[in-house]
Write a structure and sequence with these properties.
Strand order of the largest sheet: 3-2-1-4-5-9-8
Strand content: 5-15%
Mean pLDDT: 96
Number of helices: 9
Radius of gyration: 16 Å
Order of helices and strands: HEHEHHEEHHEEHHEEEH
Length: about 230
């Protein structure tokens, strides 16, 4: 029996509810790999995982993340996992949750979080309570945006002077969305005083500074989840 099972650790995963890619008429949402890979890291380690989103119910899947080029072992596993699909279709409403029930939180990316989770009052409140309760907070790719507008009790941005990462400007340029997204994550993290770090585009890279754990891109999903488990087991 793993330590996680013995102590019945509970991880909250918060997904976006936003499905419009700016004014393009195209759809967005969460990136499947960034949800599936961490979910299975937690589940396989014996953790209880609760799924939530601002609106509850089925969060939107970015259709691009379903393309053949972006499939992995974890996404194929998800494709055949009816139980997980049912859980995903019934995410809990974020505002209804009590942060005290959870040991850690993980935010999967995709472009959706740039529009709804970066400014979401319930998400900001939840992260604030995690900070006060000394619980780890993890996010990957665009989901690092959830940290942008969170401040500590002294009014200081929680990313200030912290080593963090997230989707890079050059990666955004590569997917030709520089002029579509509401802001560039790398620029905004730096503007808030973060010690922004990155690896080469599309390489797995995750950084931890205290209780903040962030990953750069989809390839960093599992690594970021593993760091969260290591912190929970510390």
């Amino acid at each position: 029996m793993t330590q996680a099972t013995q102590t019945t650790k509970k991880v909250l995963m918060v997904l976006t509810s936003h499905d419009k890619l700016g004014n393009t008429g195209e759809k967005t949402g969460f990136w499947i790999e960034e949800f599936a890979a961490p979910y299975y890291v937690f589940a396989d380690a014996g953790y209880e995982v609760v799924l939530a989103s601002p609106l509850g119910g089925q969060p939107p899947i970015d259709p691009k993340s379903e393309l053949a080029d972006f499939q992995t072992e974890d996404t194929h596993r998800f494709d055949n996992d009816e139980q997980l699909k049912s859980l995903l279709a019934n995410t809990r409403v974020l505002s209804s949750l009590n942060p005290a029930e959870f040991d850690g939180v993980f935010y999967p990316g995709g472009h959706g979080p740039l529009w709804d989770l970066a400014d979401n009052a319930d998400s900001i409140s939840l992260i604030n309570q995690f900070v006060v309760q000394n619980k780890p907070i993890a996010a990957v790719c665009h989901a690092t945006a959830v940290l942008l507008n969170v401040k500590d009790q002294n009014g200081k941005h929680i990313v200030a002077d912290k080593a963090v990462t997230g989707f890079t400007n050059s990666e955004e340029d590569a997917v030709q969305l520089m002029d579509i997204v509401p802001f560039l994550l790398e620029d905004e993290l730096i503007a808030r005083g973060a010690d922004y770090q990155k690896a080469a585009d599309w390489h797995a890279f995750s950084v931890q500074d205290g209780l903040l754990i962030t990953g750069q891109n989809p390839a960093s999903s599992s690594l970021t989840a593993q760091k969260l488990i290591s912190q929970l087991n510390a």
